[in-house]
Each structure stands twice: as structure tokens, then as C-alpha cells.
Specification:
By secondary structure, the chain is mainly alpha-helical. The chain has one domain. α1 runs antiparallel to α2. The protein is elongated.
Length: about 70
Amino acid sequence: MTHEHGTVKSRIVCDSKRLVETIMTDISVLDNVAAIKKQLHALYDELDAIHEDEEVVKIEHTFSETIYFR
């Protein structure tokens, strides 16, 4: 995961993903947490999708500002 953030939304999503990663690491030593791990993985995947959508929007904005030379 990158540490560069393009927008406030992107920073929040990246920070949230990092926190979920920390929780998944911390609870990995506990017993009977399979259901929680599954939910955390689903949450991480949702945050990752939001992050990817944000990157796509950023890329589309970059391409829309293309300067054409003749």
C-alpha cells in the first residue's frame, strides 16, 4: 500500500485499510475469531474497492486535462 495520498478521502481510506490490517494481525493469535477475520477481510476488500475507484477518478481527471499539440 502506498503512503501517497491524493485527496482527503484517499488518505482516510488508506488509513482505514492500515488499521484493519493491524487488527487482523493482532487478533491472529486469538482462538475462535474466524468469523471476525472473515468480516475484517470483507471490510478491507470494500475499502480497497473504494481506494481503487478513487485512483480511477484521479487518473481520469489527469487524462481529461491532456494538452494536445499540433
